[in-house]
Amino acid sequence: MRAAGRSVRTRLRDRIAASDPGLLRLTAGLRTVGAIALTLAVLSLLRADVHHLVAGAMAAMVATFAIREKQLGAQAVTLALGLPVALASVSLGAVLNSRLVVGDVFFVVLIFCAVYGRRFGDRGTALGLIGFQVYFLSLFVGASVSALPVLCGAIALAFCSSAVMRFAVVPATPAGVLLRLRLAFRARLAQLVSAQLELLDAGADEMDKALDAVREGTARLHETAMMIQARLEEGTPDESVARLVQRRIADAEVAAERLGLLLLSARSAERADTLTLHLPGAPAPSVGQPAVPDEATATLRRDLLALRTLVLRAGSGDAGTALAHVRNRLLGYRDEENLPPAPSAVQDVFRGIGEAARAVLGLRIALDGPQDESDDSPATARSREELDAEDAAIDGGEEPAEEQETGLRRPTTRAAVQVAVGSTLAIVGGELLSTQRWYWAVLTCWIVFLNTASTGEILVKGYRRLLGTVFGVVAGIVLAGLVGQHTWTAFALVLVLIFAMFYVAPLSYTLMSFFVTAMLGLLYTLLHTYSLDVLVLRIEETALGAACGVVAAALVLPVRTDRRTNELLGTVLDRLAAVTEAAVGQLSGGPADELLDKARDLDQALADLRAATQPLTHPVTPLRARRHTARYVVALLETCAYHARTLAATAELLPTHPSIAADPRLRGAAGRTVRNIGTIAARVADEHAGAEIETGPSIASLLGSDAGTPRYGRITDRVLRHLERLDEAVVGLARPLGVPVAAPRQ
Question: Using an 8 Å Cβ cutoff, are 588 and 662 in contact?
Answer without folding.
Answer: yes
